[in-house]
Design brief:
The protein has 295 residues and is α/β, with parallel strands linked by helices. The chain is built from 11 helices and 11 strands. The protein starts with 19 loop residues before the first helix and ends with a helix.
């Protein structure tokens, strides 16, 4: 697994999933497959089992319930078989009371679907720049005309700097943020005001999640944001027996992971489809290796 870059933005490709891991395990299993009967074979089989990934790993999802269930369904659909899934949200979303947006026609900047769900006013008829397809879907469902869908915040900043500096904008956002869009765009001459409409609140891991982490086995752990990486690390038990594989959506999320000795896979792009591919690849490695050992 390659190291991740020391970069705080989610727009940088710092590392990619090491697809060789699974094939390495399968290759080593081949060394023991044709051994003769007897004690030598039994020892070889034992060694083979130690080399192989857990054929039935646990996928620990820590996003909000609805998002986790949606992602779990996408993973199972991509794999074509069920997966052992534990859902234990470590961040809850709470409404922040905000004044109505008013009758002005400021262009909306939406970096999360939660901003749409918790908007203080009816958004119908307004225009918006959004980050991510999920946010775009939520915005359109709320009657918003989506001008452009960008991949991440860095892409959004570049788009706005070149196209919309002469129009007033309003950024509906959460209290916690990794990039101050109003400040960044204001420095470029734009008029942008911030309206905080929700906040993220840390939650403890569930007893089921803690049990999975303190027992022997393989746990695959996707980290979808820098804040969830930090909160998740702080929520981890002091004693862990499980072999964990951390997959971060971007370098900033990887950096917040507290164990600097643990290799962290970073998604090729800071978006849901890339995270899905990385998680499916990790789960597939163990599944293929297990099938090979049964031949």
């Amino acid at each position: 697994l390659g190291p991740y870059a020391q970069h705080r933005g989610c727009g940088v490709i710092a590392a990619a999933f090491d697809s060789q891991k699974g094939s390495d395990h399968i290759h080593q299993a081949e060394l023991y497959r044709h051994c003769p009967a007897g004690n030598t074979c039994q020892v070889a089989k034992k060694n083979e089992a130690a080399l192989l990934p857990d054929p039935d790993p646990t996928l620990l999802l820590t996003r909000p319930e609805a998002a986790s269930r949606r992602f779990a369904g996408e993973v199972e659909a991509a794999l074509g078989h069920p997966v052992r899934v534990i859902i234990s949200p470590v961040i809850g979303i709470e409404l922040v009371e905000a004044p109505p947006l008013g009758a002005g026609r400021e262009v909306l900047v939406l970096t999360s679907d939660n901003a749409v769900f918790h908007a203080p006013s009816d958004l119908r008829g307004r225009q918006a720049f959004v980050v991510g397809q999920r946010t775009a879907e939520a915005a359109r469902a709320a009657g918003v005309e989506v001008i452009a869908v960008t991949r991440d915040v860095s892409d959004l900043l570049n788009r706005l700097r070149t196209r919309r500096l002469n129009e007033p904008m309003v950024h509906l956002r959460g209290r916690q943020t990794t990039v101050d869009l109003a400040e960044a765009l204001g420095a470029a001459g734009a008029t942008v005001r911030d309206v905080v409409v929700y906040e993220q609140v840390a939650q403890p891991l569930s007893p089921e999640a803690l049990k999975a982490l303190t027992q022997h086995g393989r746990v695959i752990l996707p980290v979808f944001s820098p804040m969830s990486g930090l909160v998740l690390w702080q929520a981890f038990p002091n004693v862990m027996a499980a072999s964990r594989e951390v997959i971060a959506i971007c370098p900033a999320a990887a950096i917040e992971w507290g164990d600097k000795d643990q290799p962290v896979v970073v998604s090729q792009s800071p978006d849901g489809p890339s995270m899905l591919r990385a998680v499916v690849a990790s789960l597939s490695a163990g599944h293929l290796a297990a099938k090979g050992s049964d031949r």
